[in-house]
Design a protein that fits this description.
Length: 395
């Protein structure tokens, strides 16, 4: 009975179990609940596989996007770096303009203006006095002389910047070497070229005497800045260098060269003696006042000047007092030497300049001798220097 019961295929019998699990009868002989469970499992498995596939595709796309983004970023950086490295070639006119601007600052324009005004004023006075000896064929020679003076000026201020880099980084960070706009090797090439050019012009066109004075000015400018002498570190030798170059050598040398070009002898007339003495005293004032804005850097580098020794206020007032004495002497000469000078212009012009000096001194005192006030005062001193040369041909 048991065998027959088992043979009938009851749900508990072993053959029926095997029949349910066989592939042919899997969907037909399973109970509905089990079929539903199986379908759900299949759908769940299929959905999970689709989600996994979608996730893998999404992850792949995300990775691809990140890779593309990284490649674009790398390409941008490469392009930027290549464009920046190619910028000097792409913006060649701008590069040339920057180099010219750096060269212009390197030559210290305020000193160039003084040199040009001085040489033009001194030569004009000689031409006014010897108008019958003027020959236009001498104009190129006169222009070459101005170029030689500018070369000497650039050589002196340039070599000073080369050896004053650390001081200029504090006091004058706008200068091209201190600002990194010009390398020291470029500066050396410039001053060497300009110095040799000036010497060549003078030795070729102006004779041995003027060439000796010119060479002396270059030597004085060099020992002012170059170790081991470096005379700028001591107040009195530094003042002597500036007074000799800016005061005596420039005024005497230009007058002598102008007279030699015209073929007339050089004579120490009243006007020539006056401008040489006046500008020599003015050079003393400039040599003291030039250090007023530079106290901080000079103290840092142990450079002794009148400003670091006595203080900016005392040096400024002493400069004003000495310049007032200079103007007083000019006014006195205008009154007492009417045959030698144009008295009205000599007296009136220097009275006006003295009044401007008093006004500027008052403003300086009201600022409490601040750094900006000192800088404005020093620039004003140079303006008075230019004004004296502008006045000279007509007095």
């Amino acid at each position: 009975t048991t065998r027959k019961a088992r043979g009938r295929g009851t749900p508990c019998s072993t053959p029926r179990v095997f029949a349910w699990s066989s592939p042919a009868n899997r969907h037909h002989q399973r109970p509905p609940a089990m079929l539903a469970t199986t379908r759900e499992a299949k759908w769940m498995q299929r959905a999970s596989s689709m989600m996994a596939s979608s996730s893998s595709v999404s992850n792949c796309n995300h990775a691809r996007a990140c890779a593309n983004s990284r490649s674009r970023s790398t390409a941008w950086r490469t392009c930027a770096s290549s464009s920046s490295s190619a910028e000097p070639f792409a913006s060649d006119p701008q590069k040339k303009a920057n180099l010219l601007q750096a060269f212009w600052k390197f030559t210290r324009p305020h000193t160039i203006r003084g040199t040009i005004l001085g040489s033009v004023a001194l030569t004009s006075r000689v031409l006014f006095e010897h108008s019958d000896a003027i020959r236009w064929v001498l104009l190129p020679r006169a222009m070459a002389g101005v170029v030689a003076l500018l070369c000497a000026n650039a050589f002196i201020v340039g070599i000073n910047q080369i050896y004053d880099v650390k001081i200029d980084e504090v006091n004058k960070p706008y200068l091209p070497i201190a600002a990194g706009e010009m390398s020291q090797s470029t500066a050396w090439v410039l001053i060497t070229t300009l110095g040799l050019l000036g010497l060549t012009i003078v030795h070729t066109l102006f004779g041995q005497h003027i060439a000796l004075l010119y060479t002396l000015s270059l030597v004085i400018g060099a020992v002012y800045s170059v170790p081991p002498l470096r005379l700028k570190q001591r107040p009195l030798p530094a003042m002597a260098c500036i007074v000799l170059c800016r005061g005596f050598l420039l005024n005497y040398g230009v007058n002598d060269a102008a007279c030699a070009a015209l073929g007339v002898p050089f004579v120490w007339k009243f006007p020539v003696a006056f401008i040489t003495g006046f500008v020599t005293c003015f050079a003393v004032i400039i040599s003291a006042a030039k250090d007023l804005p530079d106290v901080e850097g000079d103290k840092k580098e142990n450079v002794k000047t009148f400003a670091t020794w006595l203080g900016t206020g005392k040096v400024a007032m002493a400069s004003i007092a000495l310049l007032m004495l200079n103007y007083a002497a000019a006014i006195y000469l205008g009154f007492t030497q009417p045959s030698q000078f144009n008295s009205a212009l000599m007296v009136g012009g220097h009275l006006v300049l003295a009044g401007c000096l008093i006004s500027q001194a008052t403003r300086l005192h009201m600022t409490g001798y601040s750094q900006q006030g000192i800088k404005n005062f020093y620039r004003f001193i140079w303006n008075l220097f230019y004004a004296e040369y502008a006045l000279y041909p007509f007095i």
